[in-house]
Every structure is written in structure tokens, then in C-alpha cells.
Write a structure and sequence with these properties.
17-stranded mixed sheet, 17 strands, alpha+beta, 8 helices, Diaminopimelate Epimerase, Chain A, domain 1, 2 domains
Length: about 375
């Protein structure tokens, strides 16, 4: 006997992120207990998360909760939680496209979805943003393969590709691509674009902040005045986008953009939000790729790309380049309709087992049946 309680979990690298995946049925249904469980599991609050499986930074302190779906348009339901390393906050306000790449393999290996042919297409409903993303997984001979020739910047080596289609994520939190109704506007005298595709984001030209735009993560993290200014801008943008007080949330996401230097379409520095992302978030890349073809936006002023044809938007970030295939059409009233938003990611299962937490925090009582049981206790 022990005073620890073990929860079945599988640790995955998903894209350039890492974290445990849980079945909803193995977690508590109420938010207060769930928050306490996730904080304990990851080792927060502590800057090194030494007493948990968190990786001591936001990119490696992520949690995914999965169940089968009862929706007609989805196979899997998915809830994402960002666990802050150095504060007792679990944030459910956003999605994570990097960790999403691990959901298909996890769902198949957990028996939630059956592999179908050499490639398996899985419709994944994200409860955080009320949207469906379609992931295509490599399943030769009816089983998951992790080995392959696909490479993504920020991850060593090569792996099997996971293709994610985010075309169905327009208005992820606000139900509008342009929540303020404007392509550009000014906040504190700076021109910005407030857009909501996969994640609410505020796009800001690097030059307007006195930056080149190609600074390293270390350079940007060492600029506290810049971090404070970006936080002020995004909090005001959140109010204008109808998101309320976003001071304790990771949304809207500030993206600092400038001209490409290495053959891509645009350079971006993605803030998460109190430091610079080591690479680039998938959700931020989706918002940026859509803005890159949105006439007149801060991003499109840089890319010069147009609607009506398929573009590969190469987004240059601190560790390399992320490429998203995007196509938009001009719809009713002249509004942009996103037709395609496809991105290649990779994933790998790292280990499966029991993740132990003190039983005084939770002893297994009040388990959820599915993601919907948990989501109804969360104010998104």
C-alpha cells in the first residue's frame, strides 16, 4: 500500500511540444480537483517542475485529455490544458496544434479509433475552441508507425508525418475571423490585426516595436520592457475581441512579424505570452497563415499573397521554418473564407505507465466518463 494514487498516462512528444495524454475516464470530472491533479502531476508551481513530469517551460508543460466522441462530425473529443510551470494556474483557454499531432496515435493505441488502411483520417473535436481538426496518420498494415522521413524544425531527426487540417477552426473562440470587425486598427498608436483562426491572435509589425524581427529567443526574453508592452497590447486586444480580461490567459497570442530572410513568406516571433516561443505554435501559425492572405492585414502587407490560389506560407521562427499550405476564397460580402490550412507535424510516444500523485489530492473518486463531463465544468 502507498499514499500515492497512480493515473494511467502516456507521455508524447507532439510536434515541438511534450506532455502526458490521459483518457478522460481516468481523471476527475470537477475542475477544482482536475486542476489540483494536473498541477501535481506536472510539478507546478515550481520553475523546474522537479516534483512532476513537466519540462520546466511552457512548451513541455502541456496536458491532453481524450475520449471517444458522440458528435456526428468527430471521432475523438480532446481537451487541452496549459499548466504554468511557475504559478498555480491551469489554462484551458486555447488549443495546441503541436500536441494535437499525438492524439491520433494515442487514440488508435488506446482502442478509441481503428486504423483504416495505410493512412487513417481522424476527426478531432477540440472542446477548448469548439472546432474540428482533421488529422491524417500513417498506419501501414493497420498499425501506427512513428518512423519516417518527415522532418520539422525544432525536433531532431525524422519521423512519420502527421497532416493536420485546420480549415474548420475559423472563429475558434469568438466565432469570427475578425472579432473586432476590422482588418487593422490601432492600439496604443501601433497598427495591429486581431484575428481568430485556431487561436485568437494579435499581429504586430516588428518595426513598430523597434525590433528587426529576427532576434533570437534569448535576445527577446531579455527585454522585460518589450514583454510588458506586448502583454499590454494583447490584453487590450482581448477586450476588443470580446474575450474579457485576458491577463491570466495565454490568449490572445501576440505574434511579432517582419519580412522573411531565408526564403520563407514571413518571419514571426510567437510569444507564449511572457516569453518567446522556442519555435512557433501551430495555432499561431494557422492564424498567421490565414492573415497572410487576408487583404490589408499586418501580415499580408508583408507577404503580398492573394486569395484564390493555394500558397505555401513559410513562417520563419527562431529554430527554422514552419510551412503551412493555405487557400482562401472571397466569400459573401467580400469576407475571406478559409478553404485549406494544412500543416505537417510529427509525434512520438515516449512512455506509458502510471503517473503518481499524492492520494490526499485525489484518490480516484468522481471520475469523468468523457471529455464532455469535464468540459461542462470549465468556463471557456
Amino acid at each position: 500500500m502507498s499514499d500515492l494514487y497512480s493515473i494511467p498516462a502516456t507521455l508524447f512528444r507532439g510536434g515541438t511540444s511534450k506532455g502526458p495524454l490521459f483518457l478522460a475516464q481516468d481523471l476527475p470530472a470537477d475542475k477544482q480537483t482536475l486542476d489540483a491533479v494536473l498541477l501535481s502531476a506536472m510539478g507546478s508551481p515550481h520553475k523546474r517542475q522537479v516534483d512532476g513530469v513537466g519540462g520546466a517551460e511552457s512548451l513541455t508543460s502541456k496536458v491532453v485529455i481524450v475520449s471517444g466522441s458522440s458528435r456526428e462530425d468527430a471521432d475523438i473529443d480532446y481537451l487541452f490544458a496549459q499548466v504554468n510551470p511557475d504559478s498555480p494556474i491551469v489554462d484551458y483557454s486555447s488549443n495546441c496544434g503541436n500536441m494535437l499531432s499525438a492524439i491520433g496515435p494515442f487514440a488508435i493505441e488506446s482502442g478509441l479509433v481503428k486504423a483504416a488502411g495505410n493512412e487513417t483520417r481522424i476527426r478531432i473535436y477540440n472542446a477548448n475552441t469548439d472546432s474540428v481538426i482533421v488529422a491524417t496518420i500513417q498506419t501501414p498494415d493497420g498499425s501506427i508507425t512513428y518512423e519516417g522521413n518527415a522532418a520539422i524544425d525544432g525536433v531532431p531527426g525524422t519521423s512519420a508525418p502527421v497532416i493536420e487540417n485546420f480549415a474548420g477552426t475559423v472563429g475558434s473562440k469568438t466565432k469570427k475571423m475578425l472579432p473586432t470587425g476590422k482588418v487593422t486598427e490601432r492600439i496604443e498608436g501601433i497598427e495591429v490585426t486581431c484575428i481568430d483562426v485556431a487561436v485568437p491572435a494579435v499581429l504586430i509589425a516588428a518595426q513598430a516595436l523597434g525590433l528587426r524581427g529576427d532576434e533570437s529567443k534569448a535576445e527577446l526574453d531579455a527585454m522585460p520592457d518589450l514583454i510588458k508592452r506586448l502583454d499590454d497590447l494583447r490584453v487590450e486586444a482581448g477586450q476588443r475581441m470580446g474575450l474579457g480580461d485576458c491577463r491570466k490567459l495565454v490568449i490572445p497570442k501576440p505574434l511579432v512579424v517582419s519580412a522573411a530572410r531565408h526564403g520563407g513568406a514571413i518571419t514571426s516571433r510567437d510569444f507564449v505570452p511572457y516569453n518567446c516561443h522556442a519555435t512557433h505554435s501551430v495555432t499561431g501559425a494557422t492564424a498567421l497563415a490565414a492573415a497572410s492572405i487576408l487583404p490589408g492585414s499586418v501580415a499580408q502587407q508583408i507577404t503580398g499573397l492573394s486569395t484564390g490560389e493555394r500558397h505555401t506560407v513559410g513562417i520563419e521562427h527562431p529554430a527554422g521554418t514552419m510551412a503551412m499550405d493555405v487557400r482562401g476564397e472571397t466569400g459573401a460580402g467580400g469576407h475571406l473564407e478559409l478553404v485549406e490550412a494544412n500543416l505537417l507535424r510529427t509525434a512520438r510516444r515516449l512512455f506509458s505507465g502510471g503517473l503518481a500523485i499524492p492520494s490526499r489530492i485525489w484518490n480516484g473518486d468522481g471520475k469523468a466518463a468523457n471529455v464532455a463531463d469535464i468540459a461542462r465544468h470549465i468556463d471557456f
